[in-house]
Design a protein that fits this description.
Elements lengths: L2 H12 L3 H21 L1 E6 L3 E6 L3 H21 L5 H8 L3 E5 L2 E5 L6 H37 L13 H37 L3 H17 E5 L2 E4 L4 H5 L6 H12 L9 H4 L4
Antiparallel strand pairs: 1-2, 2-5, 3-4, 5-6
Helix pairs in contact: 1-6, 3-7, 5-6
Length: 274
C-alpha cells in the first residue's frame, strides 16, 4: 500500500468515535457468533469475490481423517517424505558458502528460531499497537469535544485555542502508530505465507492436502445472487482451476480448518502489500 493509500485509510479510521467502534464491534461480534453456529467464515478474495469456508460434515470429517492417517502411514513406511520436524531442522541450518576455499556460515537458515518466535509473538504486538492507536484517537476526540464546547466569537466562528497544536501532535503520533500497526500485520501475513510455502512439502501438509481435496468442493463456497454455492463442482474442477489464487484459497481454507480466524487474510488487509 502506498503512503497516500495509508493516509486515506487513516483519515477514515481516525474520525470514528468510540460509539462507532462499539457498534461495528457489536455487528462483527454478532456476525462471528452466527459463523460459529454455522461453522463457517467469510473471506473476500478479489479474483473470486466473497467466499465462505464451511466446516465439513461428520461424514466428511471421518473420511478425511481416514485419508490423512492412511497417507501418513504409507509414506512413513516408505520414508519418501520429510516430516515437519525434519524440515524445521533443515530450514534452520545456516547457509554455507565458499570464500577463498573456506566454508563460511551465512545467515540463520530459511526458517529461523526468530521466524518461529515472531509467528507466535506478532499477534500480541498487533494487540498492543491497536490499543495504543485507540488511546491516541480517544484523546484526540476528547480534545475536539472540548473545543466544540467553547463559545463562538462574534462572527460565529470557533475560538482558536491552545488545544489545536496538541490535537495536531496527537494526530501525527496516531498516524505513526497506525503505520506501525499495518507494518506488523504485513509482517505476520508475509510470515504466514513463508511458512506455508516452506512446509507445504512436509509429510503432514501433504497428508492435510488429501483432506483439502476431499473437503474443498463441498466446503468452499462463493457468494452468487444472494446465496453461497460451491466454488467448484468436484475435485477435478478444483485441481484444474487455472485461477492463480486457487492455491491461496486452499491454503487459507487449511488455516480455517485449524481454527485460525481467516478474516485477517481478506484482501482488505492483503492489499496493503501492493
Amino acid at each position: 500500500m502506498k503512503e497516500e493509500q495509508i493516509k486515506q485509510e487513516f483519515k477514515e479510521v481516525i474520525v470514528k468515535t468510540k460509539q462507532d467502534e462499539n457498534q461495528e464491534k457489536d455487528v462483527e461480534a454478532t456476525k462471528k457468533v452466527e459463523e460459529v453456529i454455522r461453522g463457517a467464515q467469510e473471506i473476500h478474495i478479489s479474483s473470486f469475490g466473497t467466499l465462505q469456508f464451511e466446516w465439513p460434515t461428520p461424514k466428511l470429517t471421518i473420511e478425511g481423517d481416514r485419508l490423512f492417517a492412511q497417507f501418513k502411514a504409507k509414506h512413513l513406511r516408505d520414508g519418501d517424505l520429510l516430516t515437519e520436524y525434519q524440515l524445521k531442522a533443515i530450514y534452520g541450518r545456516p547457509n554455507i558458502v565458499l570464500v577463498d576455499g573456506k566454508e563460511i556460515e551465512v545467515g540463520s537458515g530459511e526458517w529461523s528460531e526468530e521466524d518461529e518466535s515472531n509467528l507466535e509473538n506478532l499477534p500480541s504486538e498487533i494487540d498492543i499497537k491497536t490499543s495504543l492507536f485507540d488511546e491516541l484517537r480517544d484523546e484526540i476526540h476528547n480534545l475536539k469535544n472540548e473545543i466544540d464546547k467553547k463559545p463562538k466569537n462574534t462572527k460565529g466562528q470557533k475560538q482558536v485555542t491552545d488545544l489545536q497544536p496538541k490535537i495536531e501532535q496527537l494526530t501525527e503520533e496516531a498516524f505513526k502508530s497506525y503505520k506501525d500497526l499495518i507494518q506488523i500485520k504485513l509482517s505476520l501475513l508475509e510470515l504466514q505465507a513463508k511458512r506455508i510455502s516452506l512446509f507445504s512439502v512436509s509429510l503432514e501438509e501433504q497428508a492435510n492436502l488429501e483432506k483439502l481435496q476431499l473437503y474443498g468442493p463441498s466446503c468452499i463456497k462463493i457468494s452468487k445472487s444472494g446465496q453461497f454455492l460451491p466454488l467448484w463442482k468436484d475435485k477435478e474442477g478444483m485441481l484444474t482451476d487455472s485461477n492463480p489464487m486457487t492455491v491461496r484459497v486452499l491454503s487459507l481454507f487449511g488455516l480455517f480448518l485449524r481454527g485460525v480466524d481467516v478474516h485477517f487474510f481478506s484482501d482488505s488487509v492483503a492489499s496493503i502489500a501492493k
